[in-house]
Target: Secreted protein
Amino acid sequence: MYGAVARSLPGRERDGQATYPTDAEYGTVSDDCPICLVGEPLLWDQLPALAGVVVGAAGSYLATSLTERSRWRRAKAERWDQKRLDTYASYANALKHQINIAQRMSAARGFHHAVDPLPPEEGLAQLVEAEARRAAEWESVLLVGDAETIGAARTWHEAVWNVELYARGRKEDQAGWEKSVARMSEARDAFYALARRDLGITGPPPPSGSWPRPWQHEDAPG
Model:
C-alpha cells in the first residue's frame, strides 16, 4: 500500500514520458506515517532553530530598550543639572545685588567698605525691591536644590539680613559690622562649595579675601 502511495506522488515530464523522483531526490515513504517522507525534517526538529531566532530577537529588543532608557536617563540628568545651575546662579546674583545695596547704605552711615555710599533714604526702597526678588528666586532653590545646598543658601541670606541691620541704622558698632561682613563672606563660600558639589564640579571654589581687605587697613604710625 505504501508503495502505491509513493508512486502516486506527482511526476514530471522527461522526453515526453512521465518520470517520478527517486528516493534520493524525494525521500521514501515512512512505514510509521504514510503521509511523511523519510528524510524530510519535521516541525519539532526545527524548534531549536526557531527558539534561537526568538531568543536572539528578544535579546536584541532588550538591549535596544536598555540603551534607549539609559540615554533618556542621561538626558534627563543633564537637563536637571542645567536647571540647578541656572537656579543657583540666579539666586546668587539676586543676593549679591541685595548685598551691594546694603553695603552702599552702610557706607553712607560711616561703616568701612569699598563701595560708593548710597543715602539710606534712597536705598531703602531699592533694598525692599531686592529682597522681594531674592524671595522669589528662593522658591526655585527650594524646588530643585539638594538639602545641604538649601541650608547653605539660607545661612547666607540670613547673614545678609544681619548686615542689613547696619544699613538700616539698627546696629551701629564698627566691630560688629566687620564680624557680620566676615560671616556673610564665609556663608557665601559655603554655599558655592555645596552648590559646586551638587553640580558635580570638582575642586573647591576660590576662597573669599579676608575682611577688611589688606589695602583697606590704615597705615600703621611710623
User: Anything to note?
Assistant: The chain has a mean pLDDT of 80. The radius of gyration is 42 Å.
